[in-house]
Amino acid sequence: MKKFHKVISAVMVSAMAASLFAGCGNADNGTQAADSAPEAAASEESAAPEADASDNTASASGTFKIGSIGPITGSAAVYGSAVQNAAQLAVDEINAAGGINGVQIEFKFEDDECDAEKSVNAYNTLKDWGMQMLMGTVTSGCSVAVAEKTAEDNMFQLTPSGSSVDCVKYDNAFRVCFSDPNQGSASALYIGENAIASKVAVIYDSSDIYSSGIYEKFAAEAANQPFEIVSAEAFTADNKTDFSVQLQKAKDAGAELVFLPIYYTEASLILSQASTMGYAPIFFGCDGLDGILNVENFDTSLAEGVMLLTPFAADAEDELTKNFVTAYKEKFGDTPNQFAADAYDAIYAIKAAGEKAGITPDMDMSAICEALKGAMTEITLDGLTGVGMTWDASGEPNKAPKAVQITDGVYKAM
């Protein structure tokens, strides 16, 4: 887990010592946001590999073609729409500031409806378009499926939010978010080190690699923490509307906190059903809960006090976050979530690595991939989701995690 455990303990203990529950449209906007965009630093210059002129995946248009895949329809559309919007915002800023190595970016997003087969089809569509780099996909299952194809093609892949370990199993793939094991271990550490509860229940989706992966590491780390898992109940994709049995077992076991390593749609049902049965524990989740305030017909007052680990809080006071949130709201009329922040950082990471490697649009996708693989391990990025972010050759990021709590209907940094 590299630096994660050391970093999270120091960061979270000091933060909680202060307070347990503390929280472009137009050209002018684009220019203002670009001035505060993430800064990348690399210690050495490296020459780009020579392009293979015989490969027709080189860009004939004199631009860099970056593709992206995610759900903009279906149950996970909140995630995909946020990624699409924030990535486009970053692309517009970069283009306004001169592009990558003086070359403009073309950006194209394809909907996969959170379906792995459709995600692979979307990847093939983007290849036909001439994609040279992939920023995606958004969800873990789709990212794993597409990673098999990008590895075969030696296409550079940077997922903003695919957290399954297998999303970066090949050397061409990197990620911005933390992996599932990191989220599970970090959640257990956070609950234990800050004495949030002594009895904890878990409700998770055993049919989903995101949810089950987080739960496994949470349970392992919980054994080292001063709390007890008194109930651990699963559901599956075929049975995810009635959670009365799982909630009743948690209530009967005296759980003061229910850990939900699941997505926001199911979480909203759990909170509603818990309220109906008069059960009001602390609910604690990971990045999958980011979006619960946007669920249609959900009483958002039920989410008051919900805690989640996420690398981004829209109310943070640093200049980069404030400028990003302002530009995003002006262009899309909504407050950006963590998935948006991940995507914004992902585009800027590609820019930083591309400039470090000296890539050019006439290079084929494999040559670009080889150049970016090395450059990703040499850049340092000050972004929305972390200051001084670096990447290992394993594809994993190194950065400090953050936590937020829903207070007065908004996410507040803790």
Account of the 3D structure:
- The chain is of the alpha/beta class and 414 residues long.
- It folds into two domains: 24-178 and 315-399, Response regulator (Rossmann fold, 3-Layer(aba) Sandwich), CATH 3.40.50.2300; 180-310, Rossmann fold (3-Layer(aba) Sandwich), CATH 3.40.50.2300.
- The protein has helices at residues 4-18, 27-35, 77-96, 116-129, 140-153, 180-193, 209-222, 244-252, 264-276, 319-332, 338-357, 365-376, and strands at residues 39-42, 64-70, 105-111, 133-134, 156-159, 173-175, 199-205, 228-235, 257-260, 282-285, 307-309, 379-383, 386-391, 397-398, 403-407, 410-413.
- Helix 4 packs across helix 5 and helix 11 crosses helix 12.
- The longest helix has 20 residues, at 77-96.
- It is elongated.
- 51% of the residues are buried.
Summarize this, please?
The chain is an alpha/beta fold. Helix content is 41%, strand content 18%.
